Amino acid sequence: MGIHRFTQNGQHIVLDVNSGVVHVVDKPAYDVLGVFSGGNDDEVLAAFSDSYDPEMVAEVMDELRSLIKQDVLFTPAIDAVSTFNERPLVKSLCLHVAHDCNLRCGYCFAGTGDFGHGRGLMTAAVAERSVDFIIENSGQRRNCELDFFGGEPLLNMDVVRHTVDYVRRREAQTGKVFKLTLTTNAVLLDDDIIAYLNEQNISLVLSLDGRREVHDRMRPCADGSGSFDEVIARIRQVVDSRNGKNYYLRGTFTAYNLDFAADVAAMADFGFVQLSVEPVVAKDGDYALKEEHLPVLFRQYDELAAHYLQQRRAGKPYEFFHFNLDLENGPCVAKRLSGCGAGHEYFAVTPQGDLYPCHQFVGRDEYLLGTVFAGVKRPELSQRFRKTHVLTKDACRNCWARFFCSGGCHANAELFNGTIDEPYSLGCELQKKRLECALMIQAQLSLDGKK
Fold it and tell me: Structural domain of residue 37, as residue ranges?
């Protein structure tokens, strides 16, 4: 598939799939591109003989051929790069410092914190060894990433502090630079913890599902009471303390709030500007998303895209994770093919030090890769993750979105299909819709800048 055409918000948009170049065209060019392939002039002229003047169609085809010569239309396909045959370098670890939680979220893939294997906290020894593991396996890579995760990582704040101290010592010894992130439900944030996280420049992912009734339905406290009031107060405190920077507000929408665009708008109205609201991934339960929900969800993304543009033009901008595309300086070819690097560049570490391909695979014993003490003991499984990308998946090879989604989430694919080779189809449809909205927004913002 060389191009993808779609119309949204009154614009006719054409994506050149392999180069990632986006063209905003008029209606005649849009229609011609539904037939034109670069050298089939007679076919194109015949197809539009009753709708457009032949001379105009010929002019359109000449303009399109000029774009082909500039390598921004019908560009050649990308082949798998040789780096996939090289030894991978570890770049990131998700450190499960707590397999326990103080909330009881209804959609939690972690089984309310225990990942199906009992509750527990990581020791300082396992944390230190995890830091050494990434240093030892990152080669010449200077920049490394560490995400404090759970359950709720603030339940083990002593080990978080110890790990950060150890990271700083190892940075000085090795020349490595660690980007640190902590994902939290915010309930346990207090003045002391907030000051520490700010002092250490630790990025935050803060959980909020939007409107009060939506949040409290799926994110109650352990005693069943709502958590919204406490959570939003803590989030406001920490966001204000860092001048509205270095954080992301992350929510989840379910079948209970198919009108999720209203939740994003609510989060923006609360004064937060770094936003992400993700579709729940679940096979069972009344809250699970199903194919029948797609038309409603597509309309919600359209509404959200319109709201996003409206707020920017009104001087009240916010960022929405899935609408952030860098069309000028996008990811390298390897990244476009393989995505997050789960299982070969990125691993999750349990409180016991076990290694899994990512945080969502934790607890799926057949995907246990090794330990931070012994290293990766199943290199064949790690290589399977490394070599499973958009050019090896049958469903991805001819998909127009393949170089933006990188084949989708391996964990979601395995959950629904029992294999990482077949992507999660409902997730694919939502991803493609989000991408169309994002491409339209980028095109519109570019046009706004020229006015």
Answer: 3-77
Q: Average pLDDT of the chain?
A: 92
Residue among 167, 155, 70, 74 nearest 119 (CA): 155
Of the given ranges (77-86, 276-285, 334-343, 381-390), which has the lowest mean pLDDT? 77-86
**241: which residues sit within 8 A by CB, 6+ positions away?**
194, 195, 198
Residues 56-72: what's their mean pLDDT? 94
Name the pairing type of β-strands 177-184 and 203-207.
parallel
In a domain, 71, yes or no: yes
Q: Please count the structural domains in the chain.
A: 1
Decide if pLDDT at 287 tops 90. yes
Q: CA–CA separation, 201 vs 208, rounded Å?
A: 21
Instruction: Flag whether 292 is in a domain.
Output: no
CA angle 302, 304, 307 (to 5 degrees): 115
Would you say residue 150 lies in a domain?
no
Could you tell me if residue 66 is inside a domain? yes
| C-alpha span between 38 and 85 (Å, rounded) | 35
Per-residue model confidence as pLDDT tens digits over 169-179:
999 999 999 99
pLDDT of residue 295: 98
CB 294 within 8 A of CB 426: yes
pLDDT digits (tens, 9 = 90+) for 96-155: 999 999 999 999 876 665 666 778 999 999 999 999 999 999 999 999 999 999 999 999
CB contact at 8 A, 388 and 407: yes
Secondary structure (H, E, C), the chain: CCEEEEEECCEEEEEECCCCCEEEECHHHHHHCCCCCCCCHHHHHHHCCCCCCHHHHHHHHHHHHHHHHCCCCCCCCCCCCHHHHCCCCCCEEEEECEECCCECCCCCCCCCCCCCCCCEECCHHHHHHHHHHHHHCCCCCCEEEEEEECCCHHHHHHHHHHHHHHHHHHHHHHCCEEEEEEEECCCCCCHHHHHHHHHCCCEEEEECCCCHHHHHHHCCECCCCCCHHHHHHHHHHHHHHCCCCCEEEEEEECHHHCCCHHHHHHHHHCCCCEEEEEECCCCCCCCCCCHHHHHHHHHHHHHHHHHHHHHHHCCCCCEEHHHCCCCCCCCCHHHHHHCCCECCCEEEECCCCEEECCCCCCCCHHHCCEECCCEECCHHHHHHHHCCCCCCCCCCCCCCCHHHHCCCCHHHHHHHHCCCCCCCHHHHHHHHHHHHHHHHHHHHHHHHHHC
